[in-house]
Amino acid sequence: MAKHRRQTKTTRRIAIASTAVAMGATAISPAVAGAAEVQIPNAGYTVDVPGLENVPGIQEVPGYSDYVVQNNTAAGSAAPASQSQRIVEIAQSKIGSPYVYGAAGPNAFDCSGFTSWVYAQVGKQIPRTSQAQASAGTPVAYNDLQPGDIVSFYGGASHVGIYIGDGKIIDALNSGTPVGVRTLDYMPFNNAVRF
Predict the structure, then answer these.
(1) Strand extents, DSSP E, the chain
(2) Which of 46, 43, 49, 59 has the alpha carbon at shortest distance from 19?
(3) Range scoring the smallest mean pLDDT among 24-38, 59-73, 98-112, 152-166
(4) What's the predicted TM-score (pTM) here?
(5) What is the structure's pLDDT at 35?
(6) Quick one: which of 6, 55, 153, 161 could link to 171 by a disulfide (CB 3.0–4.6 Å)?
């Protein structure tokens, strides 16, 4: 009978790093525009891998988001593509969860509890209240919204949601309404920020 080797986080890290190196990473250098920056586990190095994000199914490789630091694009303040996509995916995974005032997940949420919980899942600690979230981060113009941005509504930023693209947000709206997708113009826009 053949022995089976159990895959661990270490073997996944080595596999991802080996894949990155095998895919043409020939030098350890500063960030290259259009390249994915991959951390080499237990070595303290990163390797820029041009085109890694274009490999079909690469983001489904176990550990991808843990070791791909960012997708280096031309200068700009946008969040790394893989991180903003992950924020949207996590937010979508909670559609249908109940609204409970003061709840911050993982099974029930109020609006700012939802946004702060989603961000915590990608390792980002943001303020807990809607007003604090709206006044922190980097301001983003309405026309410059990108998936993963926090959008606040009403005067005083009394409500927040996560922009998911195509003029839509996911939010925990109010009592009796579960976490769901709404249009950006469903409520009066206050401001948007990027963390």
Answers:
(1) 35-40, 45-50, 68-72, 138-139, 150-153, 159-165, 168-171, 180-183, 189-194
(2) 49
(3) 24-38
(4) 0.61
(5) 60
(6) 161
